[in-house]
Amino acid sequence: MRQNSGDSEQQMQVHLDSLTKPKGSLGKLETYCVRMAKIQNRVPPVIRKKGLYVFAGDHGITAQGVSLYPPEVTYQMVINMLSGGAAANALAGGCGWELAVVDAGVAGDFPPDEELKPKHRFLRMKIGPGSGDFSRQPAMSRGELERALEAGKSIAGDAETQGYDLVAAGDMGIGNTATAAALLTGAGFTAEAMVDRGTGIDEATLERKRATIKQAVEFHNTPKSGEALLEKLGSYDMAMMAGFILGLSGRGIACVLDGFPVTAAAYMARMIAPGVSDYLFAGHSSKVRGHKPVLDAMGLDPVVSLDMHLGEGTGALIGGHVIELGVIAANEMASFAGAGVSGSSGDEEAY
């Protein structure tokens, strides 16, 4: 049932307290329900369809040897995902999510769909064949940034057209943890807190990655604005993710963030429009060093913490599934009155 604006949180709590359980006994599941009710302006909230968007792009910074894998792996993993063979495919299927892969800036041309035969939707939104090496030049032009942001906003429109009540953002791109760390270092976090091993680089590569990012941030001396940081230190996929998050505003759709790269893009979106945090959830706390400090700065409490650091939206899928379980309980449990069960006597841990 739709509520008057501002009433949904209070009415959702009343609804939860009326169900056949001690007050507050579902813990954070109840918190998620209240947040979902506020986002949807509906009591109880509903999750009828869920969609994962995986934003793929290549990163010019890999030319500086900051990643364990060569850049061509991005293209290969997109093909794998479209064929159904990635971890995101397995978890999406297991948790009932639809999946769409977005080519935001992969350095390679994909065959047409009739030849590729993708098992999932493939959104061809390529801004360019990989962003610039931001240690030597801006990651993109201002025009490319604007195109990427607008493309992301159009994907938010796609989510509404698809009828999604909950979406998740995932990433695929060799070098994207370096880009994420650069964006966040430019935003004011320390490089020491943000730079991590990514896919598992050794100590020497880690030091090179940290030094490269510090030098790049100093080289650009970028104003602390989301747009400026994305233009100088970002990438096409990061900018498109930021646009996607910005474009969800006012649509009544909640968004679950995945790990460090996605959260960096969300942080840029938040710098542009602070209100985006109102409809964001942190799906998980990644094992990547910089993830938790950024979530804390955004005021987002991760749903699960499983020591994951895969990407692809995998942590967001699991966290989103937990959120959905809370919504299902709120919709399917009986009330005390409806079930003929006596109400609470004041003991919150027992009937």
Automatic annotation (TrEMBL):
Pfam families: DBI_PRT (PF02277)
Keyword Transferase appears in the UniProt entry: yes
InterPro entries: Nict_dMeBzImd_PRibTrfase, Nict_dMeBzImd_PRibTrfase_bact, Nict_dMeBzImd_PRibTrfase_N, Nict_dMeBzImd_PRibTrfase_sf
Gene Ontology terms, MF aspect: nicotinate-nucleotide-dimethylbenzimidazole phosphoribosyltransferase activity
Catalytic activity reported: 5,6-dimethylbenzimidazole + nicotinate beta-D-ribonucleotide = alpha-ribazole 5'-phosphate + nicotinate + H(+)
The entry's keywords: Cobalamin biosynthesis, Glycosyltransferase, Transferase
EC number from the UniProt entry: 2.4.2.21
Signal sequence range: none
One GO term of the biological process aspect: cobalamin biosynthetic process
Highest taxon of the lineage: Bacteria
Pathways involved: Nucleoside biosynthesis; alpha-ribazole biosynthesis; alpha-ribazole from 5,6-dimethylbenzimidazole: step 1/2
PANTHER family listed in its UniProt record: NICOTINATE-NUCLEOTIDE--DIMETHYLBENZIMIDAZOLE PHOSPHORIBOSYLTRANSFERASE
Family statement drawn from the similarity comment of this UniProt entry: Belongs to the CobT family.
Protein name according to UniProt: Nicotinate-nucleotide--dimethylbenzimidazole phosphoribosyltransferase
Organism: Breznakiella homolactica
